[in-house]
Every structure is written in C-alpha cells, then in structure tokens.
Amino acid sequence: MPRVSCLRRSGFVLTLAFVAACGGRTVGGDGETVPEPLPGPPATPQFPTDAEPPSSPTHPPKDAGADSSAQAGSFPRGFVETRFTTDEDIGLFAVWAGSPSDAWAGGWPASYGGETPLLHWDGRRWSQVHPSGHAGTVIHGIWGSGAGDVWFAGETGSDGYVLHWDGTRAAEVFHTQGKLFCVGGTGPGDVWVAGENAAYHFDGATWTTQAFTNDTIYGMSMHRSTAWLAGDRGTYRRDTLWTAVDAPASFSVVAFGDAVWMGAANGGIYRRDGGAWSREATDLVYASTFWGTGPSDVWAVDAYDFDGKHYAHYDGTAWSTAIPGAPAGWVPKAVWGTRSDDVWFVGGSQIFHFGG
C-alpha cells in the first residue's frame, strides 16, 4: 500500500491556486547536507502513556457499540466510533495504522501551547502519548514502517519538527525553519518529510535537504522506488531525481505504480496511468487526503463542508459517495488503514473505524 501521510492545517485543508507545472523540469540532485539531527532521547523513558486498565470507566475497553468480548483489533462491519478521553476541542487531522492493534492519530491542541494531541490505539483503547518539550506542537502527518518506527511531522510556530516513536517513547529527532506538513517513506533508512520550500530525507544516519523554492509541499505518496509530492505550484515525481510533471496544483496524492490519483487545488480528482492526467467522474468536490490498498480499493475524504459529501470510494471501476453507514453531519479530515476492513477516519475530536 502507499507509504504516505498528508496534511491538514488550521482545521481545514488550504485552498491552493491552480498552476500547471512545467513538464520535465529537473528540480534537484542528491541534495545538500543540513544540520545534523538532534541527539536521541535519554536512556530513561520519559513519555509514558496514560493508558488505564481495560475496566476503567474513562477508557472503555472497546469502542461504543462494539462487542465487549471482541479480541484486540477486532471490529464489527461498518462504521463504529471509538472513544478516548481528552479535551473535546482538539482537532485531529492525521492518522496512520500499521496493524489492527497499532494506530496513531494527531492534530491541533485545544489551545495555544496546550497538550499536543498524540493518540495511540493498542487494539482496545486510545491513550495519550506525551512527547516531552512539545506542548503546543501541531501534528500534520504520521507515517511508520512498524510498531517501533513511527514518524510525526508538524510545526510549532514557524518551525517544523519531526518526532520519532521507537516503541517506548516519542522524541524530537529533527527540526528546521519552515513548517512541515507530510511524511512518508519505505523503511527506517528511507524517510521523507516535506513542507514550506523544501523536502528532507533521512537515510538512517543523516538528514539532507532538497529545495523547492517558493513552493509548499502538502501531500506525499511512496510506492516502492517511486515517490510523488503534491504542492501549491505543481506536482513532482522522483525515481532518482525530483522532476516536475505537467499537472494541476494539488494538495493530496496517492500512487500504486503507474496508477496515480491527485486531489486538485481547484477541485476534483485527477488520475494518471503513465500518461496524461484526466479528471475522474465523482461528485466529491475536493479530495483532501487519500488512502487505499491498491488501484481497485481507494478512499478519498473531503475535509470541506460544501454539500455534505465527505467520503468517496473507488472500487476499480467507479467512484461512489454513497457509503452505507457513514457518519452523518461529521467532517473527516484524514483516512488510513491496513486492509479493506481495517480503515480509520479522524476529524475534530472524533475517530471512526470502518470494518468493511
């Protein structure tokens, strides 16, 4: 499945100008070395979760409506809201899952300088993880290669930060001037983060930078050796170098080999199968984020609230916004899953699971 996490910003997806990129323009090479990553976290864990025993009344062992005898990671079919205890005014805009018993959600604090909403699902309940020194940090993107290798891209003020979860604690590993909005990769030694005017690559030891002057990268998708970036001045593809491609300005992208979908900044979903882009037939106004298991199983969500349509699913033939049981009156901001019957949707202070 694609290895990517895309952004949500200031409680809504930014509307970007429609710009066509110049085809075939080489943007950069291997990049220049940026400051060394910050020292790793101390040996003594400092960031325990506030997980409570399964019988705790404030942390129910299962989501509302689910069978309380269900095993960890087991859900009924359809949409089920999962419960967690935190400030109701938080804004969740990012989600990632590695398995049915390992998922993460993050977003905006309830107030300036407040607790960073960084939530972990262990198969039975959500609990808050506390990254030391990062009260008020906004989490825009989450991606991981496994339970002990999860990355978070975000911002505090005008600076961008990368946090890393090693299975025990979350710690800052990199920061830069300019906000960071998305993160993706193929493994612990191949991680990309991107945002204002640049993308950064971690090879397992060193961070390097690739400039995107006067551009801001909002979305990212990794599929094997090919990567895609979605920006407000164009769309970029990387095999060995980042190269601009003829495409509308966009804020989301998902790729499965030659099959690529993008959410255009002026509205609509566009598809490319190794050639020109064509607009897909769907009544979803905007595609702010994507996720899928393959080219015959793709989800898109619209974080705006124009006409009440916030979900669309592609089954290999057509897009449909008629999703049985989808929560009415709720606006999802992000989607991620591990398989077709294990899909998470987050938005505001609510988290829903779709069990197929």
Q: Give the beta-strand count.
A: 27
Per CATH, the superfamily is: YVTN repeat-like/Quinoprotein amine dehydrogenase
Architecture, CATH level 2?
7 Propeller
Strand content: over 45%
Find the CATH topology. Answer: Methylamine Dehydrogenase, Chain H
Structure description:
The chain is an all-beta fold. The protein has one domain: 7 Propeller (Methylamine Dehydrogenase, Chain H). 0% of the residues lie in helices and 47% in strands. It contains no helices and 27 strands. The chain has strands at 32-33, 79-82, 91-99, 102-108, 118-121, 126-128, 138-146, 149-156, 159-165, 170-177, 180-187, 190-202, 207-223, 226-231, 234-238, 242-245, 250-256, 259-264, 269-273, 277-279, 289-294, 297-301, 311-314, 319-320, 334-339, 342-347, 350-354. The strands form six sheets. Strands 1, 11, 12, 13, 14, 15 and 16 form a seven-stranded antiparallel β-sheet that branches. Strands 2-27-26-25 form a four-stranded antiparallel β-sheet, with no helix packed on it. The radius of gyration is 19 Å and the shape is globular. It starts with 31 loop residues before the first strand and ends with a strand.
